[in-house]
UniProtKB/TrEMBL annotation, chain A:
It is found in: Membrane. This is Uncharacterized protein. It comes from Cohnella luojiensis. Belongs to the amino acid-polyamine-organocation (APC) superfamily. Spore germination protein (SGP) (TC 2.A.3.9) family. It is a multi-pass membrane protein. GO terms for cellular component: membrane. It comes from the Bacteria.
TrEMBL record, chain B:
This is Ger(X)C family spore germination protein. It is a lipid-anchor. Residues 1-18 form the signal peptide. It is found in: Membrane.
TrEMBL record, chain C:
Pfam families: GerA (PF03323). The chain crosses the membrane at residues 289-311, 361-381, 387-409, 416-439. InterPro entries: Spore_Ger (IPR004995), UPF0353/GerABKA_families (IPR050768). This is Spore germination protein. It comes from Cohnella luojiensis. One of its GO terms (cellular component) is membrane. The lineage of its organism: Bacteria, Bacillati, Bacillota, Bacilli, Bacillales. Keywords: Membrane, Transmembrane, Transmembrane helix. Belongs to the GerABKA family. One of its GO terms (biological process) is spore germination.
Length: 372, 385, 482
């Protein structure tokens, strides 16, 4: 079993990038909200989420041999740790459910209008369950196979979209109020970037713990850059009004891609690769859910729980966000606030406790040493 | 082992599902909609939805499958209703993905354009790169017209749109741009105008794509003639003027010269001097000599320079005239001056936008054209003696 | 039936009797006694007449012994011992069991009165094929020798090409009944010790009665039994074995089969023929790039066609759509049924042409392809584009040199077609993802199966996937165990 297989920093970085970049470009909600000033919100969102992850990295470095869940135990005590971890479990469930739904909504809206959602979600379920079963090492390797294809596809699409841009869509700058930007930042933090916090739980599985911060922060920054580039292209090629009106702006922009007069609507190909890319988010969430749940409920052999856990996600997704609008209302209304607890508050708490407890721990080890 | 079992079960389940998918559409059961005509009867509040389809001629008949044309219309309370009512006449399932043209009747464009745009942008089957054209009179009639060349109407229309850049007297917009400009309260936009004319050689009427239809504040306002669409071409997106070729007759010292221009650069400058908006238009044209009716010694530098100046003056006057028509006649900002102010003078714009309709006709516009005669063609002049 | 090892007695008669017991009801066992005078035999020669070269036995061994006996100057037993030792490669066998296996392995056994040991000499007399051009892996350029069923000859082909003491071998006897010899070959300085250790333990765990081909060994030692993909390269080309050894791989050669196994193997090694190394490097790399495309086509060809023509009609260019419209008119079956029919027909034709004698086989495939295809189109059962797609897919799969990889790809086409018929490109991308995941999870003797793609840097992967000119081709070692 490959359950304790370690992954390289590069693989970890690729995983973080694909995790963040899959769904981020689907709705572009915050971009619709604050238009040309959205880059400030992105900047805010990325900075905060990198900072929060840094706190986890800091804690991890103090306890290099423990997994994050064990660090929680160490710092919070058994029962508080269980509570905190359960909060993360709930958070992952809602995020994963939303991702499930978003993907199937996208397909039923844009490509397969008559196919029932449940069929698509069932396929997603099968595929992701298989991936979770295969474990982290396989996952990390498969991202290395898929990432180049994704990049090539995106570059080709971008090349054709950029040709459609003729005025700088990011003008005029600084038209939004600060409160709007902060709200946009919160949305950005909640929706694409803050999710990266769950990578805290697999930090211990990365080979080189020393370089781990850079291999987390760089992909996150790149992912932000990618999101910004997409926003620029969408605004430039579709115009503000259409981007605002379109349900899936990036998809609409990709429809503009055409080779000469005849080859049109090439976006299906891109979407098929993009779909695989988005699956990584669901898979990673389910995988980490499995790890954390395994720790909380003291399950030794988590392998047997892959299927039930993925089934749980499937069921949650099937029963929630029945309407398309529910999803955007949730992302705009509830999610920015509800996700603050796992994304910001707990990491701050953990880092604070690490800082407080560290000297004592050091003393302990000094005391123990002569005895041992 | 386990995963294999799981996979096997999954696949056997899938094999049951295969083909049951409600989204399957077999090509053999489809009619390909190539263009769509939309009409609106204001008095009865009825919509008419006309499709121009092609389908295989005889199922299982000849070896070489031939295609036949089929025009059908349906009417109803709303756009979708009309489209659905059409199904009562259709013997095949209709596929809209390949519809390249939306021909909107004059009345529909004037009174129910919002619904049309909404339908077009909401429907997933419709490409946002298809063209929207306004027809004189009813759109349904236009789709019934036989093509001049004997080709399919949709192919002929596509050819006409493709030829646009070679003469500039029509300007066809794609749905994406219309949807994007539609909500704007400040600027208007122009798309092509489709009319019919009596063919000289054939007994039936033929389709003509010339001129433009101006939209402003969500509805059709007025027609535009061919010369004005050239100005719109020249001052619009780079992708348009980059490929444009316009012919022009220059009167110079009792000579008559024909040239065609390529645009090498076209810039609109906006400025805000002491609260008054001002526009500067700068166009650089490259000319290629087409023909001339008398001999002119083109080897002399000053002759060329004079010729270039004359050509530039003439062109500037023409553009100025069009712009005057936009400003004073139509009172519609079809060139997107308002966008310039929004993007580059956001502060000034907040004052302007309240009474933009009153300000727009009074904005001074300076047109500057420079012409370079770069190419003379295969001969320089026809011999002196 | 296994008992504790039975020693060989000093009495020839007793020993022969033991052997006759063991080989009861075997009519081919021959016992020849050597007498000096009347009385009990001085020595006995025992062998299976079908296995050994009796001519050589008569002309060389028996004649030598009897001549020596005639000119004897010591005791008869000593003389016989002397003449035996002068015969060359003899094996001293202390037990009856070893003696039995010696006889089974095309050997003769000599018992000498008064010696509690048996002496064995290998004297194979069965016919083997001579070295021929490989049948399956054809090359335009490169060596023309292929392995035969004879292990000794095959080993000779390999040793001749690698004149170094680093070349090590380890022999095993596999199969309780068949006692087939199996040789592990590797270069000491190149091989990864962990992989070697793992492989040895796997071979030792083999528990079979009869091994008839290396395919069974392959099945036994591969990492993932239920994967559709072969994880071990097989070849009948000695040059391929040698270049693999040089890259730190381990070759497994078995008696009785011309197919050698090479492990650890990566997916991309299965995709490229050995000939690539002998071509000019531009051409070789061009072909490698092409093979990447054929890999894609042979896996996704029909399913992509199904997805496009039933779900995503917008993607087909309008003029092509018009052509499809006219060609598909009147076809009674939906696209996926059409595709299934044609794919199955193709597999049937392929298999039929393989099983038939060579000359008839060719005509079957041509007749099948031409007549059935054309008739199907003419009568309006399948559409022309479908025939093109299926034919293209089939031909594309033939460019992949590894036969069983091509089969794996062809097999995976069917579930992918189902997925495409169920949910179009969505299902297809799910299927593609599952296949990629599966490939990523595979290992070949502990080494990642998708090695060049997954190695640390993409530049490195490209270097491994494409060939550099020979001058710059640094031999990279097999990736260490992770």
């Amino acid at each position: 079993m490959t359950s304790q297989e370690k992954i390289s920093n590069k693989q970890f970085g690729s995983l973080v990038f694909s995790f963040l970049s899959g769904f981020s470009t689907l709705f572009l909600i915050e971009a619709k909200l604050i238009k040309q000033d959205v880059w400030m919100s992105y900047l805010l969102g990325i900075t905060v989420s990198i900072g929060m992850l840094w706190l986890f990295v800091y804690a991890q470095k103090q306890y290099p041999h423990l997994s994050m869940a064990e660090i929680f135990d160490e710092l919070l005590g058994k029962w508080f740790a269980k509570l905190a971890l359960c909060l993360y479990l709930v958070y992952m469930l809602e995020t994963g459910g939303a991702a499930y739904r978003a993907l199937s909504f996208f397909y039923t809206t844009a490509i397969l209008p008559n196919t029932p959602n449940i069929v698509l979600m069932f396929l997603i379920f099968l595929c992701t369950a298989y991936a979770v079963y295969l474990g982290l090492g396989t996952l990390a390797r498969s991202i290395q196979v898929i990432l180049p294809f994704f990049i090539v596809a995106i570059v080709i699409v971008s090349f054709f979209i950029v040709r459609e841009i003729d005025t700088n869509p990011f003008l005029p700058q600084f038209q939004s109020r600060a409160s709007e930007i902060v709200f946009g930042g919160m949305v950005t933090l909640a929706f694409p970037f803050g999710k990266a916090i769950i990578f805290g739980f697999i930090l211990s599985r990365v080979k080189n713990v020393k370089k781990i911060f850079s291999s987390t922060a760089i992909p996150m920054a790149l992912s932000g850059l990618y999101l910004l580039a997409v926003t620029y292209m969408v605004f430039g090629s579709l115009g503000f009004n259409l981007s605002h009106a379109a349900t899936f702006p990036y998809f609409s922009a990709a429809q503009l891609v055409r080779f000469g007069e005849y080859m049109e609507r090439i976006e299906i190909f891109v979407i098929s690769i993009w779909t695989v890319f988005t699956l990584f988010e669901i898979i990673v969430i389910q995988y980490i859910f499995m790890l954390v749940a395994g720790h909380v409920f003291r399950i030794k052999e988590t392998r047997f729980f892959v299927f039930p856990i993925c089934l749980l996600f499937f069921a949650i997704a099937h029963k929630s966000f029945i309407r398309m609008m529910d999803l955007s209302l949730y992302i705009l209304g509830i999610y920015p606030i509800s996700s603050l607890l796992p994304i910001v508050i707990i990491p701050v708490l953990i880092a604070f406790l690490t800082l407080v407890k560290k000297p004592r721990g050091a003393k302990k080890s000094v005391k123990i040493n002569p005895v041992g | 082992m386990n995963s294999i079992k799981k996979l096997l079960i999954a696949f056997s389940l899938l094999s049951l599902l295969a083909g049951c998918s409600p989204d399957v559409r077999e090509i053999s059961d489809t009619a390909l909609v190539m263009s769509i005509g939309v009409d609106y009867d204001k008095e009865n509040k009825k919509y008419t939805f006309t499709t121009y389809c092609i389908l295989p001629a005889m199922p299982g008949g000849d070896k070489t499958g031939k295609l036949s044309e089929w025009v059908a219309s349906g009417s109803g309370e709303s756009f979708l209703d009309a489209a659905k009512n059409l199904r009562s006449r259709a013997g095949k399932s209709l596929i809209f993905q390949h519809a390249k043209f939306f021909i909107v009747g004059e009345e529909a464009a004037r009174y129910s354009f919002y619904e049309i745009v909404d339908f077009l942008s909401r429907n997933r089957q419709i490409r946002i790169t298809s063209y929207l054209i306004v027809s004189e009179g009813k759109a349904a009639d236009k789709l019934q017209v036989k093509s001049d060349s004997g080709d399919l109407i949709s192919n002929e229309l596509l050819g006409k749109v493709r030829n646009e850049k070679e003469w500039g007297k029509s300007i066809t917009m794609i749905i994406r741009d219309i949807v994007n400009l539609f909500p704007s309260q400040y600027r208007g936009y122009v798309t092509s105008r489709l009319s019919t004319a009596q063919s000289k050689s054939k007994p039936h009427e033929i389709l003509i794509l010339k001129g433009g239809a101006v939209f402003y504040k969500g509805k059709f306002i007025d027609w535009l003639d061919g010369n004005d669409t050239i100005t719109v071409h020249l001052l619009s997106k780079k992708s348009r003027w980059k490929e444009l070729e316009i012919a022009e007759v220059i009167h110079f010292q009792s000579l008559k010269l024909s040239v065609f221009y390529h645009v090498s650069n076209s810039v609109i400058h906006s400025s805000f001097v002491q609260g008054t908006p001002k526009m500067n238009i700068d166009i650089q044209l490259n000319a290629t000599m087409g023909n001339m009716d008398h001999n002119l010694n083109l080897n002399r530098r000053e002759v060329i320079l004079q010729l270039e100046q004359a050509a530039a003056r003439q062109m500037a006057a023409k553009i100025q005239k069009s712009i005057d028509h936009f400003q004073k006649g139509l009172k519609v900002d079809v060139l997107g001056f308002s966008d310039r102010f929004i993007q580059y003078h956001p502060k000034g714009w907040t004052m302007l936008k309240k009474d933009w309709d009153a300000v727009y006709p009074t904005i001074p516009v300076q047109v500057h054209v420079s012409v370079k005669i770069e190419q003379l063609g295969m001969i320089q002049s026809m011999g002196v003696e | 039936m296994e008992q504790r090892p039975e020693p060989i007695r000093t009495s020839v008669d007793l020993n022969v009797e033991k052997l006759l017991q063991r080989f009861a009801d075997n009519e081919h066992l021959v016992v020849r006694n050597i007498h000096k005078e009347e009385g009990s035999p001085l020595a006995s020669i025992v062998y299976l007449s079908v296995l050994i070269d009796e001519k050589r036995l008569n002309q060389q061994i028996i004649r030598k012994i009897s001549e020596d006996l005639r000119l004897q100057n010591g005791s008869a037993e000593d003389t016989i011992m002397e003449s035996i030792h002068s015969l060359g490669e003899i094996k001293v066998l202390p037990q009856i069991d070893a003696a039995v296996s010696m006889i089974s392995d095309a050997g003769i056994l000599i018992f000498v009165e008064g010696h509690s040991k048996a002496y064995g000499i290998n004297l194979p007399g069965y016919e083997t094929r001579s070295i021929e051009e490989p049948k399956l892996e054809l090359n335009v350029r490169g060596p023309r020798e292929g392995f035969t069923e004879d292990l000794q000859k095959n080993l000779g082909l390999v040793y001749r090409r690698l004149k170094t003491s680093e070349l090590k071998s380890k022999a095993y006897l596999i199969g309780k009944q068949s006692q087939t010899s199996l040789i592990l070959l590797y270069l000491e300085n190149k091989v990864d010790g962990a992989v070697l250790k793992e492989l040895k333990s796997r071979i030792e765990s083999i528990n079979m009665d009869v091994v008839s081909d290396s395919a069974e060994i392959e099945e036994w030692i591969q990492d993932s039994t239920f994967s559709p993909f072969p994880q071990i390269l097989n070849t009948e080309r000695p040059d391929r074995v040698v270049s693999a050894l040089n890259r730190g791989k381990i070759a497994i050669m078995m008696d009785g089969t011309p197919i050698a196994l090479i492990t650890p193997t990566t997916f991309f090694e299965l995709l490229h023929p050995s000939e690539d190394q002998f071509e000019r490097f531009y051409f070789a790399n061009f072909m490698r790039a092409i093979r990447m495309i054929t890999l894609f086509i042979s896996l996704f060809g029909p399913s992509l066609y199904i997805a496009l023509t039933t779900f995503h009609l917008e993607m087909i260019p309008t003029p092509l759509m018009m052509t499809f419209l006219s060609t598909k008119a009147g076809i009674p079956f939906p696209s996926y049924v059409e595709a299934f029919l044609m794919e199955i027909a193709f597999e049937v034709l392929r298999d039929a042409s393989l099983r038939l004698p060579r000359i008839a086989g060719q005509s079957v495939s041509i007749v099948g392809a031409l007549i059935i295809g054309e008739a199907a189109v003419q009568s309006g059962i399948v559409s022309r584009p479908m025939v093109i797609v299926v034919a293209m897919t089939g031909i594309a799969s033939f460019t992949i040199p590894s036969f069983n990889t091509a089969i794996a790809l062809r097999m995976l086409r069917f579930p992918l077609m189902l997925l495409a018929a169920t949910s179009g490109v969505f299902g297809l991308s799910m299927g593609m993802f599952a296949i990629i995941l599966h490939l990523c999870s595979l290992r070949s003797c502990g080494v990642l199966f998708l090695d060049p793609v997954e190695s640390a840097s993409w530049r490195n992967s490209l270097k491994k996937y494409f060939l550099l000119p020979v001058r710059y081709r640094r031999i990279s070692r097999v990736k260490k165990h992770e």
